[in-house]
Specification:
about 290 residues; 3 helices; twelve-stranded antiparallel beta barrel; Outer membrane phospholipase (ompla), Chain C; 12 strands
Length: about 290
Amino acid sequence: MHNLITNSILSCIVTLGLCSVIAQADESNTLPPPPTVDSPYLSPWLNQNFYYITQFHSYYGSKPNNSSYLEYESYGNKGPFEIYQYTDIPKILNYGSASSHGIWDGGSYFFTEQEPNLSLSKLTGKDLSLGRIKDWYIAADWTYDAGQNGINTRSLNLFNGVGVKIDTDTPLKLQINAFARYLGDNYGLPNSHRWDGYRIQGVYSAPLYTFSNGDKLTFGGYTDYTFGSNLRELTDNSIKHTNDELVVASNVSYRTKRFIIGYTSKYFHHGGQNSASNGFGHYIKIALRF
């Protein structure tokens, strides 16, 4: 298990060193153009944001969570590689509901998600477009929850597959990914350390309005549908667990050169493959761009 985690971390570090962002949804997701030479940002190709986020009713378990946390986000592209990633420090100010836990009260040290993509058109130097498909990708999505108290509080999900960028003939950018899922530690559940399930993912973003001073109003979001799991059968058909999960996120953000203010709505159906985890979550966020 430790070797799997180590190899995953190393592969993501290598990918991060080579690449950058996909026009991809965190919850805030219409990506600005890469900074110019005269840009105020630290990197000419890596977009970086530091967020303070307050969430209300996040449904990834049997009880909705309310809490605040810090998030570092980065994204960019270099050569044929594209990456989107974020790392959260949960409940950083020790604010939250009794059902939420973070770094100070026995919860997770951090939660991170890495989404590297490899463009086959850029890799081969050939136009591989087909109809409405603009490009083909080898795509991955890696998440790790660094719980403090053993395997029952940790998770490692590895999604691997292919993706396509779709020409919508509108300002809307759209990528669709198809993944197979391998689970490492999974909070002590019996589908740990095995291939279990699939995911269809849609990621989309669009500009809404550009103000006279250059500030932007943007829309972004994603839809994750996970299915084909055997978790319910592996838990003796427990009504608590399901074999599917749906999360739909939509974000509107106001972006200046230095700051982002955003609101995200998430709809959860069987969030965390828990039958009781259903409803809408709300996220208020403010970020420093650097």
